[in-house]
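QA checklist item 7 of 12: single-chain prediction sanity check.
[x] sequence parsed
[x] length recorded as 251
[x] structure emitted
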Amino acid sequence: MEKLKADLATKVDDEKLIENLFSSFQKISEEYIAQKPVDLLQNTGLFLESVMRVTQHLIEGKHTPLGGKFDLDACVKNLESVAGNDGLRIHVSRLSRAIYDFRSRKKSVHLKATDPQAIDADLVFNVCNWILIEVLKESGVAGADQEIKVLHTRKVPLVQSVGGILRTTNPKLSGTQRILLLLYSNPDGISVDGLLESTKIKIKNKNHMNKDLKNLETRDMVHLLPNGNWTLFGRGFNEAEAIISKFSSLN
């Protein structure tokens, strides 16, 4: 990611702006995983303003300087009126404007067992993820493909990558619950060794892991791929989402 940031900074010519872009996205990613919807909604402003400044520079060769007040509406209107890449000047700018005001939206209606701000945060985070992918894709920087693939990986509350290793974040999760969440977060599947590395605090050895996987397989929740990876299957998706809902409501 550091090389990508450096390459993007050569196109935008503002290292501080690029740092703001990536650090603010990292912040809202952490808040999404930690199930802090209010903090996520409140902190999207810096990310979206950074996105729009980068978009300005990629389209017009200059951007509104950091430090002053940023008029997002005027920026969007101006980008729509000039020639350039539609993905950036139309789609990125309009989506940024559409979710910008969620950060100040008040909780007005409470649905039983459902936090409206959590629903808002889920929408906002996934749109922010798409926006950053689009900016990287259209910027033309070298080596963006792999980083885009990483960003496109499903982000799941209760699961976090630490040094490249997926870990679950709630100690109350059972071994099988951890397996389901880890597989839900990685559509390509995970090997037995990978699952064991991610759950070794709860699942002590490979025999224990294989027993849990076979149990889930007989219940039509997981499937063994030809490459040796286990992937979520059938009822496993519903069960993983039920786990996320249950533990999110307890947070």
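[x] summary fact logged: The beta strands are 159-162, 165-168, 222-224, 230-232.
[ ] second reviewer sign-off
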